[in-house]
Amino acid sequence: MQISNLLISSTLAVLASASLPVINTTGNAFWNTETGERFYIRGVDYQPGGSSNLTDPLADESICSRDIPYFQELGINTIRVYTVDNSLDHSACMNALDDAGIYLLLDVNTPDSSISRTDPECSYNSAYLQSVFATIDAFAEYDNVLGFFAGNENINNENTTNSATYVKATVRDMKKYLSARDYRQIPVGYSAADITSNRYLAAQYFNCGNDSDARIDMFGVNDYSWCGSSSFTQSGYSQKVENYKGYSIPIFLSEYGCNTAEVDGSRLFQEVKTIYSTKMTGVFSGGLAYEYSQETNDYGLVEISSNGTSVTILDDFTNLKSELNSTSNPSGNGGAVSTYSYSECPTYEAGIWEADNTLPDMPSAASAYFTSGAGEPLGTSDSTELQCDSSDDDDDDETTSSTSASSSTSASASTLTSSVTSSTSSTATASSRASSSSKALGVTNFRVPIILELLFSIFENSFVFGFSIVILTVGVVLVI
Ligand SMILES: *[C@@H]1O[C@H](CO)[C@@H](O)[C@H](O)[C@H]1NC(C)=O
Ligand SMILES: *[C@@H]1O[C@H](CO)[C@@H](O)[C@H](O)[C@H]1NC(C)=O
Ligand SMILES: *[C@@H]1O[C@H](CO)[C@@H](O)[C@H](O)[C@H]1NC(C)=O
Ligand SMILES: *[C@@H]1O[C@H](CO)[C@@H](O)[C@H](O)[C@H]1NC(C)=O
Ligand SMILES: *[C@@H]1O[C@H](CO)[C@@H](O)[C@H](O)[C@H]1NC(C)=O
Ligand SMILES: *[C@@H]1O[C@H](CO)[C@@H](O)[C@H](O)[C@H]1NC(C)=O
């Protein structure tokens, strides 16, 4: 009796934690694969601590369980997290989010492990891919992962467009890794800064070419153009809908919420009614308000006490909640289109668009991960940006390249509007300075996990071989 009660209750527990339906992309929209309904992102960007106190909010149940009730009160269905520590366990928070009906958009980079704006070629190396793939390993099993961002605002002005080549190569490698490891084909995207001179070129570039692995599956735009009491036309949204029309994959606002025209010290969030209206939904699939917690850049919806235990709702929270609650999604498919084809590749033009339509091959050392997984996750302290692969770069002056990387990384940070955003590449400044000295000492890129993984991969596929080695060893010991 007791045993069967136990069985029943554990069966119920399994049923109770049944996961959210997977969301896929078809044409230029997201879809709920169980109900067949269109899915609109109603989200909030979430990185409490910001860039000054980078914490993984999904690895600490006391943090995520403190905040999830507020997500529910806002009525959101998605959060975006900019940096996680892939060496930690995320199951408690991922399951709690799932129970609350919330999906995750996850950036796979960390401040010290991302594609650098100043030396993108060097930063695209096998150690970097190990970090990215280990993050995929840590999250791919969760059905409520809506998508991965391979990069965030790598292009942040007119003259960082060549970094797109290496971000696109990372997109390709991530998509190939998902297939090679038999994971769900989770959408992989790029989140773009709103740069007047190249916003449409970037959108085209990431969705162009006949290699479907190299094309992104979704495009996020960080857009702060609707300020205060504005309108569809005054904000420039109307022009963007016009210009992005015909784009074949989902686009959404990966950050919105301009704070330069507040009314009585708070944001009105009146853009919400427009974002979820049919004026927009034929092209856009919703968005995420920037950002949950109040940090020094003053974009918070709530204030978190310095001891981390209490959350105070700000007027921005109340306004966003009320706008979301009084705005339904359009009925039917909202104008989604599935017949557009991918974009034409933009042509190279010095000073305007300098990304290459021929992508670099994946660093050869990274192919081991395809057969045996990424191996040991090394967490946020793993610093890969300056680890050029020697096989790809025959004559690299480590000292020179690291000095220039640090100085221009901090220069580009000052041009950014939002600071968590910049954290992905720009908090790197301090730590890349610190790490450059150790890199200069040892160029040898010795990574134990790869060697262990290679050994495992030898034995993994050949149980019989492993077994006979055991027999042999026992035999030898007995003989001795
Ligand atoms: C995505 O899900 C929708 C709804 O279930 C389905 O109609 C569509 O075929 C799916 N697309 C892909 C690419 O699996
Ligand atoms: C950083 O965040 C952690 C976790 O929320 C918190 O315990 C710590 O006090 C914070 N540190 C600072 C300097 O705010
Ligand atoms: C890059 O562009 C910015 C303007 O967006 C300019 O201030 C800066 O000097 C340029 N840097 C280089 C190296 O050309
Ligand atoms: C894809 O495009 C490249 C470059 O334009 C070309 O060399 C290749 O043949 C094309 N492949 C297919 C399958 O169309
Ligand atoms: C944490 O800070 C809040 C607000 O400052 C205070 O009300 C609460 O008592 C503090 N909790 C602890 C455990 O110190
Ligand atoms: C608004 O809030 C009510 C009460 O919580 C809820 O039933 C309703 O679904 C919400 N509407 C929208 C559009 O979120």
TrEMBL record:
Its EC number is 2.4.1.-. It is an enzyme of class 2 (transferase). GO terms for biological process: fungal-type cell wall (1->3)-beta-D-glucan biosynthetic process; fungal-type cell wall organization. The chain crosses the membrane at residues 454-479. It is a lipid-anchor; GPI-anchor. Residues 1-18 form the signal peptide. Splits internally a 1,3-beta-glucan molecule and transfers the newly generated reducing end (the donor) to the non-reducing end of another 1,3-beta-glucan molecule (the acceptor) forming a 1,3-beta linkage, resulting in the elongation of 1,3-beta-glucan chains in the cell wall. PANTHER family: 1,3-BETA-GLUCANOSYLTRANSFERASE GAS1, 1,3-BETA-GLUCANOSYLTRANSFERASE GAS5. This is 1,3-beta-glucanosyltransferase. It comes from Wickerhamomyces mucosus.
